[in-house]
């Protein structure tokens, strides 16, 4: 064997640490004169140079000698030449650069050297240039290259220490900054994540956040979003300047796939004041943190971020939640209310209940005892009041647990949490009595005035949100006060009658009514009275109205009497037409006639008004007042109609309602169905929703309303109306079934057709002649109705799903179809295949992907994997035949197959069902039908070995024959043939799995030996004790 060669480390001229081979001198051949030996002068460091190295080495074990060593190095620099000093300094530096990775002294030495160089950062030359030590140091250190990872990491660490040690007044030449930036940006492209992470910190003080073209900031943002290493993403989040233009990129890391990065992001965000963020950014931070799926992330948000933010406002909870308030719309206020409640719930867990109760500063007066002061009853204070009351009530509900159970529930933080529990809280009454709270809420409602400068729409939204909070607080009461319940019922009735409130407030009122009126019939009667009074406030009966009109006509002169009777005759004719249109279910015409009837009614009143004024003294009751009540009987605004429809909807949606009463059905006949064809979009939508709710409780209404809703989808062009109609159709189909709803008018239509046919035949037999002209519009309308009746609703909805480009309609259609599939109402393999393709399609929006993910998860839970099995073939062929501009080209066939194979394993399916048997035969049939498609052959052949087949000899024999046919007739490549051959061996039981080896995994023998050692050590400890 050749002898080993000596290797020396030498610094190259350009600063590179390179390996130089010291070769043996060549032998002198005969006849040649030997070369003269050159005298090599050793390059030794002596004198003050050694003192420099000794001073540097003195700090490697402790930091106590830093100041002494710094002073000594400064003295040596003044005595020595600059080149000699830097030579000794860099020699010592190279020693620590090449130390082993785990050397504990290297990092301390590099930190000391950085501090020493930074001492000269503020010292400039006579010409104003950077000090020579700083310039030479960076020139030498940036020129070093090495193949060793830890050397490159220490180079970046040295630059980081030096830059961090510079004072705020330190200045560097532009040339030096450019060189450092260029070199560190090069290291940010390194293959090692340790080097990339350390180079990020080296560049931290070199970024220019005010410049949009800063290369350092751009590199930080790129690595923050795209670097695969967690440490690098964490480093960029720490190093990047928290400026306004960088906040969106940082907020994106709140949704990082790794919980460590998300936690690190919140740690960084919590170090800055809440006032330094915009309101939208505060909401995004809290919303993502409080709803994070990781417990360690939620702990950081609760224990650190929320604590720091609430401390900025000196624990003024109302001011804190006001800082996260966006009140641009009703949806924003709802989100604000929910987010505030989540934040306060976590904050109150770490506060004493006595402090929370004292913060409310509730009034002690007898009239409003334990209530907030009315002048302080803002939306923010109502939220705080609700959460403190709920926190107090939760504590009271748990007071029966013994102290041992409380300690077990608290866990390791028992000492900290137990100090927050005050037994005196049990005796404190924080929730007012029901009658007192009703008086307080009545006073609040009557005297509400948010601001005269704000528009009426916003005041309505704000008032509704405050009312919702008051209603939620009152529901925390046990409702045992009967007098208070009656007072509350009267107050809620007044609110519904007199105030224009939002949909959500009406829904909350319905929840309160459920508790104070538990009997369903009485509850529906309560809502029926409210709706009737809104439609007909204080109106006498129809007979008394006609008596008033007839009395005034009899008192009129001849001309006025003739005009009045003509108008009255016209009104009677309109009533007959309205009745006919109701029978024909033409509600749009009914609405027009109703409006025309109202105009004639007002015209009649104006005609008879002078007569009423003339004879008002003839009776004890003013005829003028009676006359005005006739007009009031039909005059209601659009907002009243919408409010009535919402009340009707939530009345039948309360708990326990399984059928509708006669009074509620009368409200539907006289009010709800007349607005199904309303020209106002909101009115029509709520009329459809209310009619559908009635239909779910009364089948006769369902038969009438289904065709109306179906025609809305067919004729409408508005997105919101489409969305509502599709939801209603799916609700009816899920409740009654497709066959029952689609054949709802077949019997009536057949009977009517038979009658019409027989009548026409009789008429034609008796007489002959030309057919008279018929209105073409009526014929077109009838043809349109016939088309809607014969149209298959499922085909219509699937066509709408294929053609829809609106996210809201697509979501509604997907939700409806998924419900029908899960409930077994409707299913086709094409529809299931479409959902699979949409789930794997990378171009689909995230919301659609999430919906389908929940749907497929429910497929597994309900053990309906046969749907996936049936949809396999159309899905595969759609992927294979996808056009070149389709996003389905990015979907790998192998991923879809693996998903279906894993989902249909026997362990997940119903007992006794093995879908892999038929799945294997289907795989082989597809391969047999596509012998020239190598992609299909290879993908299916690879997945065959993953199937869990039954021990059926007939099945295995048939599969073996199929495989032999494929091997003989197909143009499969070598790897595909290997997969098929191995599958045949698996079927025959002769397959041997290949051995795999790992350089890191422990062998079973080593694991057993380690377990034995652990058991022996445990036994020795027990014996010693």
TrEMBL record:
Keyword Nucleotidyltransferase carried by entry: no
A GO CC annotation given for this chain: condensin complex
Region (Disordered): 1003-1025
Record's compositionally biased regions (Acidic residues): 1008-1025
SUPFAM superfamilies: ARM repeat
Compartment(s) of residence: Chromosome
GO BP terms in the entry: cell division; mitotic chromosome condensation
Superkingdom classification of source: Eukaryota
Record-linked Pfam families: Cnd3
Domain called Nuclear condensin complex subunit 3 C-terminal: residue spans: 645-949
Keywords: Cell cycle, Cell division, Chromosome, DNA condensation, Mitosis
Annotated signal sequence range: none
Chief place of localization: nucleus
Family of this protein: Belongs to the CND3 (condensin subunit 3) family.
Name of the protein in question: Nuclear condensin complex subunit 3 C-terminal domain-containing protein
Natural source organism: Polypedilum vanderplanki
């Amino acid at each position: 064997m050749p002898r080993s060669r000596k290797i020396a480390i030498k610094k190259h001229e350009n600063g590179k640490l390179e390996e130089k081979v010291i070769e043996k001198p060549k032998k002198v051949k005969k006849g040649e004169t030997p070369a003269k030996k050159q005298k090599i002068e050793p390059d030794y460091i002596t004198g003050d140079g050694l003192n420099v190295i000794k001073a540097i080495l003195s700090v490697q074990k402790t930091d106590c000698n830093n100041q002494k060593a710094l002073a000594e190095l400064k003295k040596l620099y003044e005595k020595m030449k600059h080149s000699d000093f830097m030579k000794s300094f860099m020699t010592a530096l190279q020693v620590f650069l090449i130390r082993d990775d785990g050397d504990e002294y290297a990092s301390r030495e590099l930190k000391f050297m950085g501090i020493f160089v930074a001492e000269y950062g503020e010292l400039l030359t006579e010409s104003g240039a950077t000090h020579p030590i700083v310039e030479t140091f960076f020139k030498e250190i940036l020129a070093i290259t090495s193949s060793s990872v830890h050397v490159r990491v220490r180079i970046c660490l040295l630059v980081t220490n030096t830059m961090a040690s510079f004072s705020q007044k330190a200045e560097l030449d532009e040339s030096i900054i450019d060189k450092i930036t260029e070199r560190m940006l090069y290291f940010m492209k390194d293959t090692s994540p340790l080097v990339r992470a350390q180079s990020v910190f080296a560049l931290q003080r070199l970024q220019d956040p005010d410049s949009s073209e800063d290369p350092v900031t751009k590199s930080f943002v790129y690595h923050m979003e795209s670097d695969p290493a967690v440490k690098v993403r964490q480093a960029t989040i720490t190093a990047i300047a928290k400026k306004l233009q960088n906040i969106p990129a940082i907020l994106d890391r709140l949704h990082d796939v790794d919980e460590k990065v998300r936690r690190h992001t919140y740690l960084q965000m919590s170090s800055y004041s809440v006032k330094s963020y915009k309101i939208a950014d505060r909401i995004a931070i809290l919303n993502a943190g409080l709803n994070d799926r990781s417990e360690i992330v939620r702990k950081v948000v609760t224990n650190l971020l929320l604590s720091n933010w609430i401390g900025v406002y000196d624990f003024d909870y109302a001011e804190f939640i006001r800082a996260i308030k966006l009140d641009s719309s009703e949806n924003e206020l709802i989100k604000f209310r929910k987010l505030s409640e989540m934040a306060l719930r976590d904050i109150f867990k770490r506060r004493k209940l006595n402090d929370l109760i004292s913060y409310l500063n509730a009034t002690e007066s007898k009239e409003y005892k334990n209530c907030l002061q009315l002048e302080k009853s803002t939306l923010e204070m109502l939220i705080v009041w609700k959460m403190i009351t709920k926190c107090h009530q939760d504590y009271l509900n748990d007071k029966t647990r013994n102290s041992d159970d409380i300690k077990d529930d608290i866990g390791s933080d028992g000492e900290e949490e137990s100090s927050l529990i005050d037994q005196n809280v049990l005796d404190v009454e924080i929730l007012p009595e029901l009658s007192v709270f009703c008086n307080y809420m009545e006073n609040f409602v009557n005297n509400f005035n948010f601001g005269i400068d704000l528009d009426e729409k916003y005041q309505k939204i704000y008032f509704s949100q405050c009312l919702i909070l008051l209603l939620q607080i009152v529901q925390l009461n046990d409702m045992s006060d009967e007098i208070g319940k009656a007072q509350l019922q009267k107050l809620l009735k007044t609110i519904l009658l007199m105030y224009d409130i939002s949909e959500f407030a009406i829904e909350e009122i319905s929840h309160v009514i459920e508790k104070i009126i538990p009997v369903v019939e009485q509850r529906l009667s309560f809502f029926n009275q409210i709706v009737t009074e809104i439609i007909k406030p204080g109106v006498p009966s129809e007979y008394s109205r006609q008596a008033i009109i007839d009395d005034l006509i009899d008192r009129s002169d001849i001309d006025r009497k003739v005009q009045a009777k003509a108008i009255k005759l016209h009104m009677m004719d309109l009533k007959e037409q309205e009745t006919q249109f109701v029978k024909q279910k033409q509600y749009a015409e009914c609405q027009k006639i109703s409006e025309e009837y109202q105009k004639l009614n007002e015209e009649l009143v104006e005609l008879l008004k002078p007569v009423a004024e003339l004879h008002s003294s003839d009776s004890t009751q003013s005829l003028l007042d009676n006359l005005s009540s006739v007009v009031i009987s039909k005059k209601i605004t659009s907002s009243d109609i919408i409010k009535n429809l919402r009340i009707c909807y939530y009345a039948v949606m309360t708990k326990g309602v399984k059928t509708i009463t006669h009074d509620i059905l009368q409200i539907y006949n006289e009010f709800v169905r007349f607005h199904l064809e309303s020209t106002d979009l909101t009115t029509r939508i709520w009329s459809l929703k209310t009619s559908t709710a009635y239909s779910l409780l009364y089948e006769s209404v369902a038969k009438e309303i289904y065709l109306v809703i179906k025609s809305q989808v067919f004729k409408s062009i508005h997105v919101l109306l489409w969305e509502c109609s599709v939801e209603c159709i799916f609700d009816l189909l899920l409740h009654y079934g497709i066959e029952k709803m689609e054949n709802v008018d077949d019997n009536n239509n057949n009977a009517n057709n038979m009658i019409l046919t027989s009548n026409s035949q009789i008429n034609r037999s008796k007489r002959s002649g030309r057919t008279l002209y018929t209105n073409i519009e009526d014929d077109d309308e009838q043809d349109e109705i016939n088309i809607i009746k014969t149209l298959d609703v499922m085909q219509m909805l699937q066509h709408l799903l294929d053609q829809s480009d609106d996210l809201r309609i697509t979501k509604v259609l997907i939700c409806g179809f998924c419900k029908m599939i899960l409930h077994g109402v409707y299913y086709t393999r094409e529809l299931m295949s479409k959902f699979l393709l949409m789930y794997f399609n990378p171009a689909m929006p995230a919301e659609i992907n999430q919906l389908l993910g929940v749907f497929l998860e429910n497929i597994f839970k309900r053990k309906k994997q046969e749907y996936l099995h049936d949809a396999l073939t159309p899905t595969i062929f759609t992927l294979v035949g996808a056009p070149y501009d389709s996003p389905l080209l990015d979907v790998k066939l192998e991923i879809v197959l693996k998903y279906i194979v894993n989902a249909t394993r026997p362990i997940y399916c119903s007992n006794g069902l093995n879908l892999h048997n038929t799945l294997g035969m289907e795989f082989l049939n597809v391969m047999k039908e596509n012998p020239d498609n190598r992609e299909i052959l290879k993908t299916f052949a690879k997945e065959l070995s993953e199937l869990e087949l039954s021990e059926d000899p007939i099945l295995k024999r048939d599969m073996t024959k199929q495989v032999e046919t494929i091997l003989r007739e197909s143009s499969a490549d070598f790897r595909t043939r290997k997969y098929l051959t191995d599958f045949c061996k698996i079927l025959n039981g002769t397959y041997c799995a290949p051995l795999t080896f790992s350089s890191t995994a422990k062998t079973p023998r080593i694991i057993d030996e380690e377990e034995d050692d652990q058991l022996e050590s445990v036994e020795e400890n027990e014996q010693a004790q």
